[in-house]
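Weekly structure sync, notes
Attendees: PL (lead), two postdocs, one rotation student
Agenda item 3: pending single-chain targets
PL asked that the sequence for the first pending target be pasted directly into the notes so everyone works from the same version. It is reproduced below exactly as submitted, 738 residues in total.
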Amino acid sequence: MQGAVLVAIAASIGNLLQGWDNATIAGAVLYIKKEFKLESEPTIEGLIVAMSLIGATIITTFSGAVSDWVGRRPMLIISSVLYFLSGIVMLWSPNVYVLLLARLIDGFGIGLAVTLVPVYISEMAPSEIRGLLNTLPQFSGSGGMFLSYCMVFGMSLMDNPDWRLMLGVLSIPSLLYFALTVFFLPESPRWLVSKGRMVEAKQILQRLRGREDVSGELALLVEGLGVGGETSIEEYIIGPANELADDQGAIADKEHITLYGPEEGLSWVARPVKGQSSLALVSRHGSMQKQQSVLRMDPVVTLFGSVHEKLPEMGSMQSTLFPNFGSMFSVADQQHKTEQWDEESLQQEGDDYASDAGGGDSDDNLHSPLLSRQTTSMDVKDIAPPHGSGMSMRRNSSLLQNGGEAVSSMGIGGGWQLAWKWSERKGADGKMEGGFKRIYLHQEGVPGSRKGSLVSLPGVEIPEDSEFVQAAALVSQPALFSKELMDKHSVGPAMVHPSEAAAKGPKWADLFEPGVRHALLVGVGIQILQQFAGINGVLYYTPQILEQAGVEVLLANIGIGSASASILISALTTLLMLPSIGVAMRLMDISGRRFLLLSTIPVLIASLVVLVVANLVDMGTVVHAVLSTASVVIYFCCFVMGFGPIPNILCAEIFPTRVRGVCIAICALTFWFGDIIVTYTLPVLLNMIGLAGVFGIYAVVCTLALVFVFLKVPETKGMPLEVITEFFAVGAKQAALD
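Predicted structure, written out during the meeting:
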């Protein structure tokens, strides 16, 4: 995973520059006011600080759609160029108007980085460490603030501090960012697949994962091109064929799916089980025990929870599936021929271009990924002869190579497996009708340990020492399956090339798909609540709070000026955030996003309540100083562990590939508008209700956020992005039925 980690670190420098700029302008504005005599012009002073917010809001309105069109990497390159230009112009700035223009350009760079870096990292990262890597922007942003505060503090001790130099230094790290975006950062493989550029996507995945065989993940990315569609939840019992007995014969042989393992002659049987999966129960009835409470929990939350509760002690870092399970769904004949699927090297060559699979008299087959014309075009002689009316899978020499070792595993992260099923039956008119299904499989139990809980399964008898697995399955139509081509390809499923699907581009109608609409509700809601939870108010008034507590006076007494003391306090506060973010990075993929939010938001509420009480009740100088300082530090540390990074992480995870850029831009717009509203209403609220009243409002908003997270925000740790969007589609439809 080293490749993905290095790419994420390089991309997060864009957020380091944002933090650097925020801290620099906070210190530099003290000297800008003096030079341009803005003490009597608070509007201009506020505009200098806020112009970057305005620029970020403007650029965000179309950055998502443009990134879906031209790619993530070009937008990050543009961001680095804008950072550099703004630094040069701020270094020159002969008057206020040029400075405002420079701040606007700077805002453009900030908007692109803040919006697209989380998307870029999410699309690059393995699902097992996606949360950790996507917390890097928060860490680098806070690190940039600390470094900048240190620089500004040093400059403030000079006889004639130069604010132009403070602001212009931004252009130096932005040059490094430019070099990395141009020469090191690759394009997002998910975006490349969405444009049909399969060869490039494969090569980048190989570099990121450090291995040759990335066919499973590449197939997953292809499946992520779909938006909407009917998804059902099924359950299978999977185990050695000779150990899954059916004494009562309640389940007919035709419902078995035979899966061939890596060793010749060794096979596993997947047997459908009706109505026993916890996922299926949630899907059909929309309720688990915790949904029976007065506050109704979103079906999406319970669906996600039903997966994560299966292996609570494992987190999502690894799967306990027994070794052969990963080889059940293997890529057949995975050779250089796969590269023929790139739009630049493959032109349609008649009707043979679409893939054909299935055949014989078999009713169902689970197949390997349909990644190339060569590997998916099957002759009848390649298909295993049917065993009675049972189901079979292609089983020839191409599947079992290198002394019986599987060519590749179809593991797609987080304990999920990917496969396809072709069903062919006689219709009412006597003609053969086929249906092609894509399956995401997830283990629901530990091998050999579930006999006691499966006694009630109808017609299934599990040997006590068997290696069976109970698996839940999300079953849907493949993203590139074309019913229109079925007449031309009667042997099996006809697949459309990704470049054809890409030519259609994103559809605005996709935003109204139930799953996408539901995800937008979660994304926009958590961004609004994050902004109104008080972070900007507490940040803006930290010096004032600590001054009232006597901390700034103490620093001033040791020979540091008021401005320098304010900057030093902010630097120390930022420094305390870094270890907290480090803890969040460690826990993000183990405890999960939802757990961190539900754990840290109550602490935010408590710290705000203490600040309110400290400002209303006369407790004495020492007690007031201790309570105020401790509350501010605890608030910051808990915020950057949960409510700081997680909204952006979630928004980068919950939308389908085709509309991810547009949806993330909508969420980012919500972020910037909320930021502007909070920043500009703060002085008005302070005049009306005072500092205690403002913190009281923030405490109420945090309480509402806690309820919203509990009811609406699912746990997405360790799950492939494509599976997350599938769950949202299922949960949204269930919520509509309820």
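Discussion points:
- The mean pLDDT is 75.
- The first helix runs from residue 2 to 11.
Action: rotation student to compare against the earlier draft before next sync.
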